[in-house]
Predict the structure.
Amino acid sequence: MAIESTLLILIHSAFGLILLHYLYFLQMVFRGLTNLKPSNNEILPHEFVSIIIPFRNESQNIIANLKSIESQLYPPNKLEVIYVDDFSDDNSLELLRSNIKKNNIRVLSVSEDYSKNAHKKRAIRYGIENAKGGIIVTTDADCIYDEEWLHSLMMSFDSLTGFVSGPVEFIFSDKMFSKFQKLEFAGLVLCGAGLIGSGHPTICNAANIAYRKKVFDEVGGFKDQMNLSSGDDELLMQKISKDSDFKVKFCIEQKAIVKTSANETIGDFYQQRKRWASKGLFYGDKSLVFKLILIYTFYIGLIFQLILGLTIHKTFLFSLLISLFLKSIFELRILAKGKEKILRDIQLKYFFLAEIIQIPYIIYAGLIGAFGDYLWKSRKVKR
């Protein structure tokens, strides 16, 4: 009996330590969100700006995106837009070329033998190699923008800033699945914003980022990532934070928000999350990888506590309830702070439903994303 009691204490202690680590992480995110402040810059950066938009099979979105880009209130003599086609097999390319109305917008196509395995990243790199801007902005072809999006994003740059991450949110929809995605995605965006605000840049979204071309070159760009199909956003941000003297900032201006549509099907959602999860093991900072593994272990521990509570000892059900309660309180604080400062359209009434759905999907998508292939734009991508 003494051995069994000791074992129970050790297991509970392990679950408790993992819980404390996760709560510490969430508190760091919350503190980082609190630290974020609007930019106090009064003038735009002097550098020429190149917006690079990679696309593949975006016939349903490309015209809306083009119109939104053409509506930008930014000095046209300081801006170029480069669309880069990554072997679309629909009529995206033809639609785009036939509807361009401004002279500072051009379209390129990636050559077949150019970094074959990098996919979207190779399109961005190809665009950068053909860009003349001192500041590179990347976004996606399924996005729409406020007419002052670019202006707001650029006002975050000062002489010490090398990388700026901007907010992204899903367009509102009446569908319950879209509402869940909107809230869950908001959590990811706010997590990234909070980590930047706390001085630990970890995640961002390529639909709304900007960086200095000289800093991109200084840290080697994507040269050590071209075997990966993703990572054009956070892996680059982490390198700039770690390997340069420039700062990473998050833009909290409302007009800087980029909007995109949620996934239509559970299958699309699953493939997207697998693609995002596939980058984690390739982070250059191995201590960060270890911390992420601990967070993933926390989620697995929730399932194990349920199983142990039903089969071994009921105290595990009690510890499970404590973990879920504290997890919910800390995550709700983050969403509430994010709603106050950045993403004001968050619908918190769906929070507890999302909390239930989140656990099994994170466990499954994280595991498959780390070790399995995934589909992206009708293309099977190898790990």
The chain has a mean pLDDT of 89.
